Protein backbone atom coordinates (compact mmCIF):
# COMPACT_ATOMS: atom_id res chain seq x y z
CA UNK A 1 0.00 0.00 0.00
CA UNK A 2 0.90 3.68 -0.01
CA UNK A 3 3.36 4.02 2.83
CA UNK A 4 5.59 6.97 2.09
CA UNK A 5 5.54 10.38 0.46
CA UNK A 6 7.27 10.41 -2.94
CA UNK A 7 10.52 12.36 -3.24
CA UNK A 8 9.92 16.04 -3.85
CA UNK A 9 6.40 15.99 -2.43
CA UNK A 10 5.18 18.77 -0.15
CA UNK A 11 3.75 16.21 2.27
CA UNK A 12 0.66 15.40 0.24
CA UNK A 13 0.23 12.04 -1.45
CA UNK A 14 -2.52 12.47 -4.03
CA UNK A 15 -3.11 9.21 -5.88
CA UNK A 16 -5.72 7.96 -8.32
CA UNK A 17 -6.96 4.41 -8.73
CA UNK A 18 -8.63 3.41 -12.00
CA UNK A 19 -10.43 0.29 -10.85
CA UNK A 20 -12.25 -2.39 -12.79
CA UNK A 21 -14.94 -4.18 -10.85
CA UNK A 22 -16.00 -4.44 -7.24
CA UNK A 23 -13.18 -6.80 -6.31
CA UNK A 24 -10.42 -4.41 -7.39
CA UNK A 25 -12.27 -1.61 -5.62
CA UNK A 26 -12.28 -3.35 -2.25
CA UNK A 27 -8.82 -4.88 -2.70
CA UNK A 28 -7.35 -1.38 -2.68
CA UNK A 29 -9.70 0.65 -0.50
CA UNK A 30 -9.78 -1.74 2.46
CA UNK A 31 -5.98 -2.01 2.90
CA UNK A 32 -5.70 1.74 2.32
CA UNK A 33 -8.11 2.42 5.19
CA UNK A 34 -6.60 -0.27 7.42
CA UNK A 35 -3.13 1.19 6.98
CA UNK A 36 -4.39 4.62 8.01
CA UNK A 37 -6.06 3.27 11.13
CA UNK A 38 -2.93 1.31 12.05
CA UNK A 39 -0.98 4.58 11.89
CA UNK A 40 -3.57 6.39 14.04
CA UNK A 41 -4.47 8.67 11.15
CA UNK A 42 -7.85 10.36 10.80
CA UNK A 43 -9.64 8.56 7.99
CA UNK A 44 -12.40 10.04 5.83
CA UNK A 45 -14.32 7.99 3.27
CA UNK A 46 -16.61 9.89 0.89
CA UNK A 47 -18.29 7.66 -1.69
CA UNK A 48 -21.66 7.24 -3.41
CA UNK A 49 -24.24 5.49 -1.23
CA UNK A 50 -23.95 2.05 -2.84
CA UNK A 51 -20.16 1.98 -2.60
CA UNK A 52 -20.24 3.46 0.89
CA UNK A 53 -22.50 0.65 2.10
CA UNK A 54 -20.22 -1.91 0.46
CA UNK A 55 -17.12 -0.54 2.18
CA UNK A 56 -18.88 -0.13 5.52
CA UNK A 57 -19.96 -3.77 5.49
CA UNK A 58 -16.49 -4.97 4.48
CA UNK A 59 -14.80 -2.94 7.23
CA UNK A 60 -16.94 -4.48 9.96
CA UNK A 61 -16.21 -3.07 13.41
CA UNK A 62 -13.42 -0.89 12.00
CA UNK A 63 -16.10 1.24 10.31
CA UNK A 64 -16.77 2.86 13.68
CA UNK A 65 -13.27 4.36 13.63
CA UNK A 66 -13.79 6.03 10.26
CA UNK A 67 -15.72 9.14 9.22
CA UNK A 68 -18.02 8.30 6.32
CA UNK A 69 -20.07 10.58 4.09
CA UNK A 70 -22.22 10.34 0.98
CA UNK A 71 -20.20 12.18 -1.66
CA UNK A 72 -23.30 12.67 -3.83
CA UNK A 73 -24.63 14.97 -1.11
CA UNK A 74 -21.44 16.58 0.20
CA UNK A 75 -19.92 16.87 -3.25
CA UNK A 76 -22.93 17.62 -5.42
CA UNK A 77 -21.17 20.90 -6.12
CA UNK A 78 -17.52 19.92 -6.75
CA UNK A 79 -16.49 23.43 -5.75
CA UNK A 80 -17.27 22.79 -2.09
CA UNK A 81 -15.39 19.49 -1.70
CA UNK A 82 -12.00 21.09 -0.97
CA UNK A 83 -13.53 23.31 1.70
CA UNK A 84 -15.20 20.34 3.34
CA UNK A 85 -11.98 18.31 3.26
CA UNK A 86 -10.03 21.28 4.62
CA UNK A 87 -12.46 21.63 7.53
CA UNK A 88 -12.08 17.91 8.30
CA UNK A 89 -8.28 18.24 8.28
CA UNK A 90 -8.31 21.43 10.38
CA UNK A 91 -10.32 19.72 13.11
CA UNK A 92 -7.62 17.04 13.24
CA UNK A 93 -4.55 19.21 12.90
CA UNK A 94 -2.62 17.13 15.45
CA UNK A 95 -2.30 14.07 13.21
CA UNK A 96 -2.10 12.97 9.57
CA UNK A 97 -5.25 12.66 7.52
CA UNK A 98 -6.17 9.95 5.03
CA UNK A 99 -9.00 10.46 2.54
CA UNK A 100 -10.60 8.32 -0.13
CA UNK A 101 -13.21 9.80 -2.46
CA UNK A 102 -15.05 9.10 -5.69
CA UNK A 103 -16.24 12.38 -7.18
CA UNK A 104 -17.36 11.04 -10.58
CA UNK A 105 -20.43 8.84 -10.34
CA UNK A 106 -23.21 7.84 -12.75
CA UNK A 107 -25.43 10.87 -13.14
CA UNK A 108 -22.72 13.53 -13.17
CA UNK A 109 -23.64 16.08 -15.83
CA UNK A 110 -21.62 17.65 -18.62
CA UNK A 111 -21.77 20.94 -16.72
CA UNK A 112 -20.41 19.36 -13.52
CA UNK A 113 -17.49 17.53 -15.11
CA UNK A 114 -15.13 20.53 -15.58
CA UNK A 115 -15.62 21.48 -11.92
CA UNK A 116 -14.65 17.93 -10.91
CA UNK A 117 -11.43 18.14 -12.93
CA UNK A 118 -10.62 21.56 -11.46
CA UNK A 119 -11.11 20.17 -7.95
CA UNK A 120 -8.54 17.44 -8.57
CA UNK A 121 -6.10 19.87 -10.21
CA UNK A 122 -6.25 22.14 -7.14
CA UNK A 123 -5.90 19.45 -4.47
CA UNK A 124 -2.12 19.56 -4.06
CA UNK A 125 -2.12 23.35 -4.07
CA UNK A 126 -4.85 23.46 -1.42
CA UNK A 127 -3.08 21.09 0.96
CA UNK A 128 0.57 21.91 0.31
CA UNK A 129 2.62 21.20 3.41
CA UNK A 130 -0.10 19.15 5.09
CA UNK A 131 0.54 15.52 6.03
CA UNK A 132 -2.27 14.03 3.98
CA UNK A 133 -2.77 10.91 1.88
CA UNK A 134 -5.61 10.87 -0.63
CA UNK A 135 -6.85 8.06 -2.83
CA UNK A 136 -9.26 9.10 -5.58
CA UNK A 137 -11.33 6.34 -7.14
CA UNK A 138 -12.37 6.18 -10.79
CA UNK A 139 -14.33 3.48 -12.58
CA UNK A 140 -12.09 2.80 -15.59
CA UNK A 141 -14.96 1.26 -17.54
CA UNK A 142 -17.04 4.45 -17.21
CA UNK A 143 -14.35 6.92 -18.33
CA UNK A 144 -14.00 8.14 -21.89
CA UNK A 145 -10.60 8.92 -23.39
CA UNK A 146 -10.60 12.55 -22.26
CA UNK A 147 -11.64 11.75 -18.69
CA UNK A 148 -9.02 9.01 -18.38
CA UNK A 149 -6.34 11.43 -19.59
CA UNK A 150 -7.55 14.08 -17.13
CA UNK A 151 -7.02 11.66 -14.25
CA UNK A 152 -3.34 11.36 -15.13
CA UNK A 153 -2.99 15.12 -15.59
CA UNK A 154 -4.50 15.97 -12.20
CA UNK A 155 -2.94 13.26 -10.00
CA UNK A 156 0.82 13.18 -9.38
CA UNK A 157 0.57 9.54 -8.34
CA UNK A 158 -1.27 6.64 -9.99
CA UNK A 159 -2.11 3.41 -8.19
CA UNK A 160 -1.62 0.62 -10.70
CA UNK A 161 -1.13 -3.14 -10.38
CA UNK A 162 -0.75 -2.94 -6.62
CA UNK A 163 1.95 -0.28 -6.58
CA UNK A 164 2.30 3.48 -6.61
CA UNK A 165 3.73 5.11 -9.73
CA UNK A 166 4.51 8.72 -10.55
CA UNK A 167 2.23 10.08 -13.28
CA UNK A 168 4.31 11.36 -16.21
CA UNK A 169 1.37 13.48 -17.38
CA UNK A 170 0.77 15.44 -14.17
CA UNK A 171 0.20 19.07 -15.24
CA UNK A 172 -2.35 20.71 -12.91
CA UNK A 173 -1.72 24.30 -14.04
CA UNK A 174 -2.17 23.35 -17.69
CA UNK A 175 -5.43 21.59 -16.78
CA UNK A 176 -6.72 24.67 -14.96
CA UNK A 177 -5.92 26.78 -18.01
CA UNK A 178 -7.59 24.29 -20.34
CA UNK A 179 -10.83 24.24 -18.36
CA UNK A 180 -10.93 28.00 -17.85
CA UNK A 181 -13.24 28.40 -20.83
CA UNK A 182 -16.01 30.92 -21.59
CA UNK A 183 -19.27 29.70 -20.10
CA UNK A 184 -22.42 29.03 -22.12
CA UNK A 185 -25.11 31.69 -22.01
CA UNK A 186 -28.81 31.58 -22.83
CA UNK A 187 -30.89 33.57 -25.28
CA UNK A 188 -33.81 33.29 -22.84
CA UNK A 189 -31.94 34.90 -19.92
CA UNK A 190 -33.38 37.88 -18.06
CA UNK A 191 -30.92 40.58 -16.99
CA UNK A 192 -30.38 43.10 -14.21
CA UNK A 193 -27.34 45.33 -13.68
CA UNK A 194 -26.16 46.26 -10.18
CA UNK A 195 -24.09 49.44 -10.34
CA UNK A 196 -24.20 50.52 -6.69
CA UNK A 197 -25.17 49.01 -3.34
CA UNK A 198 -28.48 50.82 -3.70
CA UNK A 199 -29.35 48.55 -6.63
CA UNK A 200 -29.17 45.38 -4.52
CA UNK A 201 -32.69 45.70 -3.11
CA UNK A 202 -34.40 46.08 -6.50
CA UNK A 203 -32.19 43.29 -7.88
CA UNK A 204 -33.35 40.95 -5.13
CA UNK A 205 -36.98 41.76 -5.91
CA UNK A 206 -36.33 41.11 -9.60
CA UNK A 207 -34.66 37.76 -8.85
CA UNK A 208 -37.45 36.75 -6.46
CA UNK A 209 -40.16 37.32 -9.04
CA UNK A 210 -38.29 35.35 -11.68
CA UNK A 211 -37.49 32.46 -9.32
CA UNK A 212 -41.08 32.23 -8.13
CA UNK A 213 -42.29 32.26 -11.73
CA UNK A 214 -40.04 29.25 -12.41
CA UNK A 215 -41.39 27.47 -9.34
CA UNK A 216 -38.30 27.60 -7.13
CA UNK A 217 -39.13 26.64 -3.54
CA UNK A 218 -39.17 29.20 -0.73
CA UNK A 219 -35.85 27.84 0.58
CA UNK A 220 -34.49 27.94 -2.94
CA UNK A 221 -35.46 31.59 -3.31
CA UNK A 222 -33.69 32.39 -0.03
CA UNK A 223 -30.57 30.63 -1.31
CA UNK A 224 -30.78 32.42 -4.65
CA UNK A 225 -30.94 35.81 -2.95
CA UNK A 226 -27.91 34.98 -0.80
CA UNK A 227 -25.96 33.86 -3.86
CA UNK A 228 -26.98 36.85 -5.95
CA UNK A 229 -26.19 39.31 -3.17
CA UNK A 230 -22.77 37.81 -2.45
CA UNK A 231 -21.78 37.75 -6.12
CA UNK A 232 -22.97 41.29 -6.79
CA UNK A 233 -21.34 42.61 -3.62
CA UNK A 234 -18.06 40.94 -4.58
CA UNK A 235 -18.18 42.72 -7.93
CA UNK A 236 -18.78 46.10 -6.32
CA UNK A 237 -16.21 45.70 -3.55
CA UNK A 238 -13.41 43.69 -5.17
CA UNK A 239 -13.74 44.15 -8.93
CA UNK A 240 -14.69 47.80 -8.61
CA UNK A 241 -17.20 47.48 -11.41
CA UNK A 242 -20.88 46.98 -12.03
CA UNK A 243 -22.24 43.45 -11.77
CA UNK A 244 -24.23 42.23 -14.75
CA UNK A 245 -26.69 39.64 -13.46
CA UNK A 246 -28.48 37.13 -15.66
CA UNK A 247 -30.97 34.40 -14.78
CA UNK A 248 -32.28 31.51 -16.83
CA UNK A 249 -33.48 27.92 -16.65
CA UNK A 250 -31.29 25.04 -17.82
CA UNK A 251 -31.95 21.32 -17.47
CA UNK A 252 -34.04 21.63 -14.33
CA UNK A 253 -31.83 24.29 -12.75
CA UNK A 254 -32.11 28.00 -12.22
CA UNK A 255 -28.82 29.55 -13.28
CA UNK A 256 -27.66 32.80 -11.67
CA UNK A 257 -24.81 34.43 -13.58
CA UNK A 258 -22.72 37.37 -12.39
CA UNK A 259 -20.22 39.11 -14.67
CA UNK A 260 -17.87 42.00 -13.96
CA UNK A 261 -14.63 43.56 -15.17
CA UNK A 262 -12.41 42.09 -12.45
CA UNK A 263 -9.98 39.21 -12.78
CA UNK A 264 -10.09 36.25 -10.38
CA UNK A 265 -6.40 35.51 -9.89
CA UNK A 266 -6.67 32.98 -7.05
CA UNK A 267 -7.91 29.60 -8.37
CA UNK A 268 -8.65 28.53 -4.79
CA UNK A 269 -10.92 31.50 -4.11
CA UNK A 270 -14.19 30.26 -2.66
CA UNK A 271 -12.97 26.67 -2.41
CA UNK A 272 -11.33 26.85 1.02
CA UNK A 273 -12.66 28.21 4.33
CA UNK A 274 -12.02 31.95 4.83
CA UNK A 275 -9.14 32.88 7.16
CA UNK A 276 -10.23 32.82 10.79
CA UNK A 277 -8.55 36.17 11.43
CA UNK A 278 -10.70 37.92 8.82
CA UNK A 279 -14.35 36.93 8.77
CA UNK A 280 -15.02 38.74 5.49
CA UNK A 281 -12.00 37.80 3.34
CA UNK A 282 -13.04 35.17 0.81
CA UNK A 283 -16.39 34.67 2.54
CA UNK A 284 -18.68 35.56 -0.36
CA UNK A 285 -17.64 33.02 -2.98
CA UNK A 286 -17.11 30.36 -0.31
CA UNK A 287 -20.70 30.86 0.82
CA UNK A 288 -21.89 30.61 -2.79
CA UNK A 289 -20.08 27.28 -3.20
CA UNK A 290 -21.60 26.04 0.04
CA UNK A 291 -25.16 26.87 -1.04
CA UNK A 292 -25.23 26.21 -4.79
CA UNK A 293 -25.64 22.82 -6.46
CA UNK A 294 -22.92 23.79 -8.94
CA UNK A 295 -20.60 26.77 -9.40
CA UNK A 296 -18.65 27.44 -12.58
CA UNK A 297 -16.35 30.33 -13.40
CA UNK A 298 -14.34 31.85 -16.20
CA UNK A 299 -11.81 34.62 -15.80
CA UNK A 300 -9.68 36.56 -18.28
CA UNK A 301 -8.15 39.99 -18.80
CA UNK A 302 -11.61 41.14 -19.89
CA UNK A 303 -13.37 40.17 -16.68
CA UNK A 304 -14.86 37.32 -14.69
CA UNK A 305 -18.10 35.39 -15.03
CA UNK A 306 -19.49 33.12 -12.31
CA UNK A 307 -22.51 30.87 -12.70
CA UNK A 308 -24.35 29.31 -9.76
CA UNK A 309 -26.89 26.54 -10.34
CA UNK A 310 -29.86 25.79 -8.08
CA UNK A 311 -32.11 22.81 -8.67
CA UNK A 312 -35.71 23.74 -9.29
CA UNK A 313 -37.09 20.48 -7.91
CA UNK A 314 -34.53 18.00 -6.58
CA UNK A 315 -37.23 15.42 -5.86
CA UNK A 316 -37.72 15.01 -9.60
CA UNK A 317 -34.02 14.71 -10.34
CA UNK A 318 -32.64 12.03 -8.02
CA UNK A 319 -28.92 11.46 -7.60
CA UNK A 320 -27.97 8.02 -8.85
Can you characterise this structure?
With 320 residues, the chain is of the alpha/beta class. It has two domains: 12-179, 3-Layer(aba) Sandwich (Rossmann fold); 190-311, Histidine kinase-like ATPase, C-terminal domain (Heat Shock Protein 90, 2-Layer Sandwich), CATH 3.30.565. 37% of the residues lie in helices and 24% in strands. The chain contains ten helices and twelve strands. The chain has helices spanning 22-38, 49-59, 71-74, 81-90, 113-126, 145-154, 172-178, 200-214, 218-239, 283-291; strands at 12-19, 42-47, 67-70, 97-101, 132-139, 157-160, 163-166, 190-194, 243-250, 253-260, 294-300, 303-311. The strands form two sheets. The protein has a seven-stranded mixed β-sheet, with helices on both faces. A hairpin with a 2-residue loop joins strand 9 (243-250) and strand 10 (253-260). Helix 8 runs antiparallel to helix 9. The two termini are 30 Å apart.
What's a concise summary of this model?
The protein is of the alpha/beta class and 320 residues long.
Cross-sheet strand order for the largest sheet: 3-2-4-5-1-6-7
Give the low-pLDDT segments.
Answer: 1-10, 314-320
What is the oligomer described by this structure? single chain
CATH H-tier superfamily of the largest domain: P-loop containing nucleotide triphosphate hydrolases
- Examine the coordinates and then state which fold CATH places here, giving the name of the CATH topology of the largest domain: Rossmann fold
Going by helix content, strand content and strand pairing, the class is alpha/beta
Report the sheet with the most strands, covering strand number, pairing sense and barrel closure: 7 strands, mixed
CATH class of the largest domain: Alpha Beta
Beta-strand percent range: 15-25%
Tell me the number of helical segments per DSSP (H or I, 4 or more residues long).
Answer: 10
Protein name: Sensor histidine kinase
Keywords: Kinase, Serine/threonine-protein kinase, Transferase
Pfam families: HATPase_c_2, MEDS
GO molecular function: protein serine/threonine kinase activity
Amino acid sequence: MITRVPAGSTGVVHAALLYRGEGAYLDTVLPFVAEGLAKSESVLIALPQKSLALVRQALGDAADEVTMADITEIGRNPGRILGWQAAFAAERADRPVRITTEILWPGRTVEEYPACVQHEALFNMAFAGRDMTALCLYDAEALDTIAAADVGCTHPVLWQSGSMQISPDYQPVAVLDRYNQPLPNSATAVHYTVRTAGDLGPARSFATRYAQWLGLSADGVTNLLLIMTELATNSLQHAGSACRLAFWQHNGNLVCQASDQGRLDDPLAGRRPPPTDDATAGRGLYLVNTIADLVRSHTSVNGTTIQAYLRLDSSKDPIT
